[in-house]
Design goal:
The chain is mostly helical and 469 residues long. Helix content is 76%, strand content 3%. It has helices spanning 3-7, 11-21, 23-34, 39-46, 50-77, 80-100, 104-132, 138-167, 179-185, 188-198, 205-210, 214-225, 227-240, 261-275, 278-283, 285-291, 296-324, 326-349, 363-382, 384-394, 401-427, 433-455; strands at residues 173-174, 177-178, 253-254, 258-259, 352-353, 359-360.
Length: 469
Protein backbone atom coordinates (compact mmCIF):
# COMPACT_ATOMS: atom_id res chain seq x y z
CA UNK A 1 0.00 0.00 0.00
CA UNK A 2 1.63 3.26 -1.11
CA UNK A 3 1.43 6.63 0.65
CA UNK A 4 -1.41 7.81 -1.63
CA UNK A 5 -3.54 4.78 -0.80
CA UNK A 6 -2.72 5.09 2.89
CA UNK A 7 -3.83 8.71 2.84
CA UNK A 8 -7.23 7.64 1.44
CA UNK A 9 -7.79 5.08 4.18
CA UNK A 10 -10.76 5.59 6.47
CA UNK A 11 -8.57 6.60 9.40
CA UNK A 12 -11.55 7.51 11.55
CA UNK A 13 -12.83 3.93 11.43
CA UNK A 14 -9.32 2.48 11.78
CA UNK A 15 -8.61 4.60 14.86
CA UNK A 16 -11.96 3.59 16.38
CA UNK A 17 -11.12 -0.08 15.83
CA UNK A 18 -7.66 0.43 17.36
CA UNK A 19 -9.23 2.22 20.34
CA UNK A 20 -11.48 -0.75 21.05
CA UNK A 21 -8.79 -3.39 20.48
CA UNK A 22 -6.33 -1.64 22.77
CA UNK A 23 -8.74 -1.68 25.71
CA UNK A 24 -7.42 -5.22 25.90
CA UNK A 25 -3.98 -3.70 26.36
CA UNK A 26 -5.29 -1.47 29.14
CA UNK A 27 -6.69 -4.54 30.90
CA UNK A 28 -3.41 -6.35 30.29
CA UNK A 29 -1.66 -3.52 32.14
CA UNK A 30 -4.30 -3.05 34.83
CA UNK A 31 -4.49 -6.72 35.74
CA UNK A 32 -0.68 -6.94 35.78
CA UNK A 33 -0.31 -3.86 37.98
CA UNK A 34 -3.26 -4.47 40.33
CA UNK A 35 -1.21 -6.92 42.43
CA UNK A 36 1.33 -4.17 43.15
CA UNK A 37 0.37 -3.04 46.64
CA UNK A 38 -1.70 -6.08 47.58
CA UNK A 39 1.12 -8.38 48.73
CA UNK A 40 0.62 -7.53 52.40
CA UNK A 41 -3.10 -8.33 52.13
CA UNK A 42 -2.48 -11.59 50.30
CA UNK A 43 0.14 -12.64 52.83
CA UNK A 44 -2.13 -11.94 55.81
CA UNK A 45 -5.36 -13.30 54.32
CA UNK A 46 -3.91 -16.56 53.08
CA UNK A 47 -0.94 -16.92 55.51
CA UNK A 48 1.65 -17.05 52.72
CA UNK A 49 5.43 -17.38 52.97
CA UNK A 50 7.67 -15.78 50.33
CA UNK A 51 7.54 -18.83 48.03
CA UNK A 52 3.73 -19.03 48.14
CA UNK A 53 3.46 -15.27 47.66
CA UNK A 54 5.61 -15.60 44.56
CA UNK A 55 3.40 -18.41 43.27
CA UNK A 56 0.18 -16.51 44.04
CA UNK A 57 1.45 -13.42 42.22
CA UNK A 58 2.91 -15.54 39.43
CA UNK A 59 -0.21 -17.66 38.90
CA UNK A 60 -1.52 -14.88 36.70
CA UNK A 61 1.53 -15.35 34.50
CA UNK A 62 1.02 -19.11 34.18
CA UNK A 63 -2.47 -18.30 32.93
CA UNK A 64 -0.98 -15.68 30.60
CA UNK A 65 1.30 -18.27 29.00
CA UNK A 66 -1.61 -20.69 28.51
CA UNK A 67 -3.92 -17.93 27.27
CA UNK A 68 -1.39 -16.53 24.81
CA UNK A 69 -0.71 -19.96 23.34
CA UNK A 70 -4.30 -21.06 22.91
CA UNK A 71 -5.50 -17.60 21.83
CA UNK A 72 -3.00 -17.58 18.99
CA UNK A 73 -4.23 -20.97 17.81
CA UNK A 74 -7.93 -20.26 18.39
CA UNK A 75 -7.62 -16.98 16.50
CA UNK A 76 -6.96 -19.00 13.34
CA UNK A 77 -9.99 -21.21 14.00
CA UNK A 78 -12.80 -19.03 15.35
CA UNK A 79 -11.47 -15.53 14.66
CA UNK A 80 -9.57 -12.71 16.33
CA UNK A 81 -12.61 -10.81 17.62
CA UNK A 82 -14.37 -13.90 18.97
CA UNK A 83 -11.35 -14.89 21.05
CA UNK A 84 -11.07 -11.32 22.40
CA UNK A 85 -14.73 -11.53 23.48
CA UNK A 86 -14.00 -14.75 25.37
CA UNK A 87 -11.00 -13.02 26.99
CA UNK A 88 -13.20 -10.11 28.11
CA UNK A 89 -15.57 -12.54 29.85
CA UNK A 90 -12.61 -14.07 31.70
CA UNK A 91 -11.39 -10.59 32.69
CA UNK A 92 -14.72 -9.81 34.37
CA UNK A 93 -15.06 -13.16 36.13
CA UNK A 94 -11.45 -13.20 37.32
CA UNK A 95 -11.68 -9.69 38.80
CA UNK A 96 -14.86 -10.39 40.76
CA UNK A 97 -13.68 -13.71 42.20
CA UNK A 98 -10.25 -12.33 43.20
CA UNK A 99 -11.97 -9.46 44.95
CA UNK A 100 -14.41 -11.53 46.98
CA UNK A 101 -13.08 -15.02 47.65
CA UNK A 102 -11.53 -16.06 50.94
CA UNK A 103 -10.32 -19.39 49.58
CA UNK A 104 -6.72 -19.38 48.43
CA UNK A 105 -7.18 -22.12 45.81
CA UNK A 106 -10.15 -20.27 44.30
CA UNK A 107 -8.19 -17.00 44.33
CA UNK A 108 -5.33 -18.67 42.45
CA UNK A 109 -7.78 -20.23 39.97
CA UNK A 110 -9.40 -16.84 39.34
CA UNK A 111 -5.99 -15.23 38.94
CA UNK A 112 -5.08 -17.99 36.48
CA UNK A 113 -8.30 -17.33 34.51
CA UNK A 114 -7.59 -13.61 34.51
CA UNK A 115 -4.11 -14.44 33.31
CA UNK A 116 -5.52 -16.41 30.39
CA UNK A 117 -7.43 -13.26 29.43
CA UNK A 118 -4.31 -11.10 29.78
CA UNK A 119 -2.29 -13.54 27.65
CA UNK A 120 -4.96 -13.62 24.97
CA UNK A 121 -5.24 -9.83 24.86
CA UNK A 122 -1.46 -9.43 24.78
CA UNK A 123 -1.10 -11.31 21.50
CA UNK A 124 -4.45 -10.64 19.84
CA UNK A 125 -4.62 -6.86 20.20
CA UNK A 126 -1.36 -6.22 18.26
CA UNK A 127 -2.21 -9.03 15.81
CA UNK A 128 -5.64 -7.56 15.13
CA UNK A 129 -4.34 -3.99 14.79
CA UNK A 130 -1.55 -5.03 12.42
CA UNK A 131 -4.14 -6.74 10.20
CA UNK A 132 -6.34 -3.65 9.77
CA UNK A 133 -3.79 -0.80 9.80
CA UNK A 134 -2.02 0.72 6.75
CA UNK A 135 1.66 -0.30 6.59
CA UNK A 136 2.92 3.30 6.78
CA UNK A 137 1.32 3.91 10.18
CA UNK A 138 1.07 0.33 11.45
CA UNK A 139 3.92 0.79 13.92
CA UNK A 140 2.36 3.89 15.44
CA UNK A 141 -1.08 2.35 15.72
CA UNK A 142 0.21 -0.90 17.20
CA UNK A 143 2.33 1.11 19.66
CA UNK A 144 -0.95 2.45 21.06
CA UNK A 145 -1.22 -1.04 22.59
CA UNK A 146 1.81 -0.29 24.76
CA UNK A 147 0.43 3.15 25.63
CA UNK A 148 -2.69 1.43 26.91
CA UNK A 149 -0.70 -1.25 28.76
CA UNK A 150 1.23 1.43 30.65
CA UNK A 151 -1.94 3.48 31.13
CA UNK A 152 -3.53 0.40 32.67
CA UNK A 153 -0.52 -0.16 34.92
CA UNK A 154 -0.53 3.49 35.98
CA UNK A 155 -4.29 3.42 36.57
CA UNK A 156 -3.82 0.40 38.82
CA UNK A 157 -1.05 2.21 40.73
CA UNK A 158 -3.22 5.33 41.13
CA UNK A 159 -6.30 3.37 42.23
CA UNK A 160 -4.24 1.31 44.66
CA UNK A 161 -2.63 4.45 46.09
CA UNK A 162 -5.92 6.28 46.72
CA UNK A 163 -7.68 3.17 48.02
CA UNK A 164 -4.83 2.58 50.46
CA UNK A 165 -4.80 6.25 51.47
CA UNK A 166 -8.54 6.30 52.18
CA UNK A 167 -8.44 2.99 54.05
CA UNK A 168 -5.34 3.83 56.07
CA UNK A 169 -3.25 1.23 54.22
CA UNK A 170 -3.82 -1.83 52.05
CA UNK A 171 -4.98 -3.78 55.13
CA UNK A 172 -7.55 -1.16 56.09
CA UNK A 173 -11.25 -1.41 55.23
CA UNK A 174 -13.62 0.42 52.88
CA UNK A 175 -17.36 -0.39 52.84
CA UNK A 176 -16.75 -3.59 54.76
CA UNK A 177 -13.99 -4.94 52.49
CA UNK A 178 -10.25 -4.76 52.91
CA UNK A 179 -8.63 -2.15 50.68
CA UNK A 180 -6.53 -4.71 48.84
CA UNK A 181 -9.72 -6.46 47.72
CA UNK A 182 -11.01 -3.25 46.13
CA UNK A 183 -7.74 -3.11 44.18
CA UNK A 184 -8.77 -6.35 42.45
CA UNK A 185 -12.48 -5.54 42.09
CA UNK A 186 -11.69 -2.30 40.24
CA UNK A 187 -10.44 -4.40 37.31
CA UNK A 188 -14.03 -5.36 36.45
CA UNK A 189 -14.98 -1.83 35.33
CA UNK A 190 -12.76 -1.56 32.21
CA UNK A 191 -13.35 -5.28 31.54
CA UNK A 192 -17.11 -4.70 31.12
CA UNK A 193 -16.41 -1.73 28.80
CA UNK A 194 -14.08 -3.93 26.71
CA UNK A 195 -16.67 -6.69 26.43
CA UNK A 196 -19.39 -4.32 25.22
CA UNK A 197 -17.14 -2.45 22.77
CA UNK A 198 -15.91 -5.62 21.04
CA UNK A 199 -19.36 -6.16 19.54
CA UNK A 200 -18.95 -2.86 17.64
CA UNK A 201 -15.85 -3.79 15.59
CA UNK A 202 -15.48 -6.12 12.57
CA UNK A 203 -13.50 -9.34 12.24
CA UNK A 204 -9.98 -9.19 10.77
CA UNK A 205 -10.15 -9.30 6.95
CA UNK A 206 -7.07 -11.52 6.78
CA UNK A 207 -8.75 -14.09 9.02
CA UNK A 208 -11.87 -13.93 6.86
CA UNK A 209 -9.86 -14.60 3.69
CA UNK A 210 -8.09 -17.52 5.38
CA UNK A 211 -11.51 -19.05 6.03
CA UNK A 212 -12.70 -18.55 2.44
CA UNK A 213 -15.12 -15.79 3.48
CA UNK A 214 -13.96 -13.34 0.83
CA UNK A 215 -17.26 -11.44 0.53
CA UNK A 216 -17.15 -10.62 4.26
CA UNK A 217 -13.46 -9.67 3.98
CA UNK A 218 -14.20 -7.46 0.94
CA UNK A 219 -16.89 -5.63 2.90
CA UNK A 220 -14.49 -4.93 5.79
CA UNK A 221 -11.64 -3.87 3.48
CA UNK A 222 -13.96 -1.61 1.49
CA UNK A 223 -15.03 0.17 4.67
CA UNK A 224 -11.35 0.59 5.60
CA UNK A 225 -9.69 1.45 2.27
CA UNK A 226 -12.31 1.78 -0.47
CA UNK A 227 -13.61 -0.64 -3.11
CA UNK A 228 -10.65 -0.49 -5.53
CA UNK A 229 -8.01 -1.07 -2.85
CA UNK A 230 -10.17 -3.76 -1.22
CA UNK A 231 -10.23 -5.80 -4.43
CA UNK A 232 -6.45 -5.51 -4.82
CA UNK A 233 -5.84 -6.51 -1.20
CA UNK A 234 -8.12 -9.54 -1.46
CA UNK A 235 -5.91 -10.93 -4.22
CA UNK A 236 -2.68 -10.23 -2.30
CA UNK A 237 -3.99 -11.77 0.92
CA UNK A 238 -5.33 -14.83 -0.91
CA UNK A 239 -1.93 -15.38 -2.56
CA UNK A 240 -0.16 -15.24 0.82
CA UNK A 241 -2.03 -18.30 2.12
CA UNK A 242 -1.23 -21.89 1.23
CA UNK A 243 -3.43 -23.34 -1.48
CA UNK A 244 -3.56 -26.82 0.02
CA UNK A 245 -4.46 -26.12 3.66
CA UNK A 246 -5.74 -23.46 6.01
CA UNK A 247 -3.34 -22.01 8.62
CA UNK A 248 -2.26 -24.69 11.10
CA UNK A 249 0.41 -25.29 13.71
CA UNK A 250 2.55 -27.25 11.26
CA UNK A 251 3.26 -23.98 9.41
CA UNK A 252 5.75 -22.89 12.10
CA UNK A 253 7.74 -26.13 11.96
CA UNK A 254 11.09 -26.66 10.25
CA UNK A 255 12.98 -29.99 9.94
CA UNK A 256 15.89 -30.36 12.35
CA UNK A 257 15.43 -27.05 14.23
CA UNK A 258 11.80 -27.53 15.41
CA UNK A 259 10.72 -24.00 14.40
CA UNK A 260 11.40 -21.83 11.38
CA UNK A 261 14.12 -19.17 11.88
CA UNK A 262 11.55 -16.36 11.93
CA UNK A 263 9.77 -18.09 14.82
CA UNK A 264 13.04 -18.42 16.74
CA UNK A 265 13.61 -14.68 16.21
CA UNK A 266 10.15 -14.04 17.67
CA UNK A 267 10.92 -16.27 20.66
CA UNK A 268 14.18 -14.36 21.22
CA UNK A 269 12.65 -10.89 21.39
CA UNK A 270 9.70 -12.22 23.42
CA UNK A 271 11.89 -13.76 26.13
CA UNK A 272 14.58 -11.09 26.36
CA UNK A 273 11.90 -8.45 26.84
CA UNK A 274 11.36 -10.19 30.17
CA UNK A 275 14.91 -11.27 31.02
CA UNK A 276 15.88 -7.61 31.51
CA UNK A 277 13.60 -7.63 34.58
CA UNK A 278 11.10 -4.92 33.66
CA UNK A 279 8.16 -6.51 35.41
CA UNK A 280 10.00 -6.53 38.72
CA UNK A 281 9.51 -2.76 38.67
CA UNK A 282 5.82 -3.17 37.75
CA UNK A 283 4.79 -6.20 39.84
CA UNK A 284 7.06 -5.74 42.84
CA UNK A 285 7.62 -1.98 42.73
CA UNK A 286 6.12 -1.44 46.16
CA UNK A 287 8.07 -4.36 47.62
CA UNK A 288 11.26 -3.22 45.88
CA UNK A 289 11.12 0.27 47.32
CA UNK A 290 10.17 -1.00 50.77
CA UNK A 291 13.25 -3.23 50.59
CA UNK A 292 15.16 -0.05 49.81
CA UNK A 293 13.89 1.44 53.06
CA UNK A 294 10.87 3.62 52.17
CA UNK A 295 7.33 3.52 53.57
CA UNK A 296 4.33 1.90 51.83
CA UNK A 297 2.90 5.32 50.96
CA UNK A 298 6.14 6.56 49.41
CA UNK A 299 6.59 3.23 47.56
CA UNK A 300 3.14 3.56 45.98
CA UNK A 301 3.92 7.18 45.01
CA UNK A 302 7.10 6.02 43.26
CA UNK A 303 5.07 3.42 41.36
CA UNK A 304 2.89 6.24 40.01
CA UNK A 305 5.99 8.21 38.96
CA UNK A 306 7.29 5.14 37.10
CA UNK A 307 3.94 4.77 35.35
CA UNK A 308 3.81 8.40 34.23
CA UNK A 309 7.33 8.43 32.82
CA UNK A 310 6.52 5.14 31.07
CA UNK A 311 3.57 6.71 29.27
CA UNK A 312 5.73 9.64 28.13
CA UNK A 313 8.39 7.23 26.80
CA UNK A 314 5.84 5.18 24.85
CA UNK A 315 4.48 8.34 23.23
CA UNK A 316 8.04 9.15 22.13
CA UNK A 317 8.26 5.66 20.60
CA UNK A 318 4.90 6.16 18.90
CA UNK A 319 6.23 9.29 17.17
CA UNK A 320 9.46 7.66 15.95
CA UNK A 321 8.82 3.95 15.29
CA UNK A 322 7.61 4.43 11.69
CA UNK A 323 10.42 6.90 10.98
CA UNK A 324 13.61 5.29 12.25
CA UNK A 325 12.37 1.69 12.35
CA UNK A 326 11.97 -1.12 14.84
CA UNK A 327 15.52 -2.50 14.95
CA UNK A 328 17.26 0.81 15.82
CA UNK A 329 14.81 1.37 18.68
CA UNK A 330 15.55 -2.09 20.08
CA UNK A 331 19.31 -1.44 20.03
CA UNK A 332 18.93 2.00 21.65
CA UNK A 333 16.80 0.45 24.36
CA UNK A 334 19.20 -2.42 25.02
CA UNK A 335 22.15 -0.07 25.47
CA UNK A 336 20.17 2.29 27.71
CA UNK A 337 18.84 -0.53 29.87
CA UNK A 338 22.29 -2.09 30.25
CA UNK A 339 23.70 1.21 31.56
CA UNK A 340 20.80 2.00 33.92
CA UNK A 341 20.55 -1.54 35.28
CA UNK A 342 24.29 -1.41 35.92
CA UNK A 343 23.77 1.82 37.87
CA UNK A 344 21.02 0.22 39.97
CA UNK A 345 23.27 -2.77 40.65
CA UNK A 346 25.98 -0.41 41.89
CA UNK A 347 23.52 1.55 44.07
CA UNK A 348 22.23 -1.58 45.81
CA UNK A 349 25.75 -2.96 46.27
CA UNK A 350 26.50 -0.36 48.95
CA UNK A 351 23.26 -0.76 50.90
CA UNK A 352 23.24 -1.31 54.63
CA UNK A 353 20.64 -2.66 57.04
CA UNK A 354 18.61 -1.08 59.80
CA UNK A 355 17.98 -2.63 63.23
CA UNK A 356 15.09 -4.68 61.82
CA UNK A 357 17.26 -6.07 59.04
CA UNK A 358 15.65 -3.98 56.29
CA UNK A 359 17.78 -2.72 53.42
CA UNK A 360 18.78 0.95 53.71
CA UNK A 361 20.34 3.01 50.92
CA UNK A 362 22.55 6.02 51.56
CA UNK A 363 21.37 9.40 50.31
CA UNK A 364 23.50 9.39 47.14
CA UNK A 365 22.89 5.71 46.37
CA UNK A 366 19.16 6.16 46.96
CA UNK A 367 19.04 9.09 44.56
CA UNK A 368 21.01 7.17 41.92
CA UNK A 369 18.74 4.13 42.32
CA UNK A 370 15.60 6.25 41.89
CA UNK A 371 16.94 8.12 38.84
CA UNK A 372 18.37 4.95 37.26
CA UNK A 373 15.11 3.03 37.82
CA UNK A 374 13.08 5.71 36.08
CA UNK A 375 15.59 6.06 33.22
CA UNK A 376 15.52 2.29 32.86
CA UNK A 377 11.73 2.38 32.59
CA UNK A 378 12.01 5.18 30.01
CA UNK A 379 14.47 3.23 27.84
CA UNK A 380 12.33 0.08 28.06
CA UNK A 381 9.13 1.85 27.10
CA UNK A 382 10.82 3.76 24.30
CA UNK A 383 12.02 0.49 22.79
CA UNK A 384 11.45 -3.09 23.88
CA UNK A 385 8.09 -2.41 25.55
CA UNK A 386 6.18 -1.34 22.42
CA UNK A 387 8.51 -2.65 19.69
CA UNK A 388 8.35 -6.28 20.78
CA UNK A 389 4.55 -6.30 20.51
CA UNK A 390 4.64 -4.39 17.22
CA UNK A 391 7.08 -6.88 15.71
CA UNK A 392 5.23 -9.95 16.96
CA UNK A 393 2.07 -8.60 15.35
CA UNK A 394 3.69 -7.99 11.97
CA UNK A 395 6.91 -10.02 11.48
CA UNK A 396 5.29 -13.37 10.64
CA UNK A 397 3.76 -14.33 7.27
CA UNK A 398 -0.05 -14.50 7.10
CA UNK A 399 -0.02 -18.29 6.85
CA UNK A 400 1.67 -18.77 10.22
CA UNK A 401 0.87 -15.56 12.12
CA UNK A 402 -1.57 -17.08 14.60
CA UNK A 403 0.53 -20.17 15.31
CA UNK A 404 3.81 -18.22 15.50
CA UNK A 405 2.21 -15.78 17.93
CA UNK A 406 1.04 -18.73 20.01
CA UNK A 407 4.63 -19.95 20.33
CA UNK A 408 6.13 -16.50 20.94
CA UNK A 409 3.37 -15.58 23.38
CA UNK A 410 3.91 -18.78 25.35
CA UNK A 411 7.65 -18.05 25.47
CA UNK A 412 7.08 -14.43 26.51
CA UNK A 413 4.77 -15.21 29.38
CA UNK A 414 6.83 -18.23 30.41
CA UNK A 415 9.87 -15.95 30.71
CA UNK A 416 7.74 -13.40 32.56
CA UNK A 417 6.66 -16.04 35.06
CA UNK A 418 10.23 -17.28 35.53
CA UNK A 419 11.49 -13.78 36.32
CA UNK A 420 8.62 -12.84 38.65
CA UNK A 421 8.54 -16.20 40.45
CA UNK A 422 12.30 -16.14 41.04
CA UNK A 423 12.56 -12.53 42.24
CA UNK A 424 11.44 -12.87 45.90
CA UNK A 425 13.86 -15.75 46.53
CA UNK A 426 16.73 -14.21 44.53
CA UNK A 427 16.35 -10.78 46.13
CA UNK A 428 16.39 -12.20 49.65
CA UNK A 429 19.39 -10.92 51.60
CA UNK A 430 20.44 -14.50 52.31
CA UNK A 431 20.53 -15.30 48.58
CA UNK A 432 21.74 -13.04 45.73
CA UNK A 433 20.19 -9.90 47.18
CA UNK A 434 19.13 -6.98 45.02
CA UNK A 435 22.72 -6.48 43.86
CA UNK A 436 23.12 -9.95 42.39
CA UNK A 437 19.59 -9.98 41.00
CA UNK A 438 20.01 -6.71 39.12
CA UNK A 439 23.45 -7.81 37.90
CA UNK A 440 21.73 -10.74 36.12
CA UNK A 441 19.24 -8.37 34.47
CA UNK A 442 22.16 -6.16 33.39
CA UNK A 443 23.89 -9.10 31.67
CA UNK A 444 20.65 -9.98 29.86
CA UNK A 445 20.40 -6.40 28.53
CA UNK A 446 23.97 -6.56 27.23
CA UNK A 447 23.35 -9.90 25.49
CA UNK A 448 20.19 -8.54 23.86
CA UNK A 449 22.25 -5.92 21.96
CA UNK A 450 24.11 -8.60 20.03
CA UNK A 451 21.04 -10.80 19.49
CA UNK A 452 19.08 -7.93 17.92
CA UNK A 453 21.97 -7.00 15.63
CA UNK A 454 22.27 -10.58 14.35
CA UNK A 455 18.75 -12.02 14.22
CA UNK A 456 16.18 -9.24 13.83
CA UNK A 457 15.10 -8.02 10.38
CA UNK A 458 13.53 -4.60 9.88
CA UNK A 459 9.78 -4.58 9.11
CA UNK A 460 9.17 -0.83 8.83
CA UNK A 461 6.85 0.10 5.96
CA UNK A 462 6.39 -3.47 4.67
CA UNK A 463 2.96 -4.92 3.89
CA UNK A 464 2.09 -8.03 5.91
CA UNK A 465 1.94 -9.96 2.63
CA UNK A 466 5.67 -9.20 2.13
CA UNK A 467 6.77 -10.93 5.33
CA UNK A 468 8.92 -14.00 4.72
CA UNK A 469 9.18 -17.10 6.91
Amino acid sequence: MNEAVASRANMGLIIAIVAVATIGGLLFGYDSGAVNGTQAGLTEEFKLNSAWLGFTVGSLLIGCAVGAFFAGRLADVIGRRTVMILAAVLFVAGALIQGFTGIHALFVAARFAGGMAVGAASVLSPLYISEVAPAQVRGRLTTVQQVMIITGLTAAFVVNYFVAQNAGGSLGELAGLHAWRWMYLAQAVPAVVFLAALFLIPESPRYLVSQGREDAARKVLTSLFGAEEAERKIGEIRASFSADHRPSFRDVAAPGIVFRPIVWAGIMIATFQQFVGINIIFYYGETLWKLAGVSESVALERNIISGLVSIAAVFAALLTIDRIGRKPLLIIGSVGMAVTLGAMTWAFSGAGQDAAGNLVLGEIAGYIALVAANLYVIFFNFSWGPVMWVMLGEMFPNQMRGSALAVAGLAQWGANYLVVQSFPAMADKDALGLTGTYAIYTVAAVISIFLVRKFIQETKGKELEEMQG
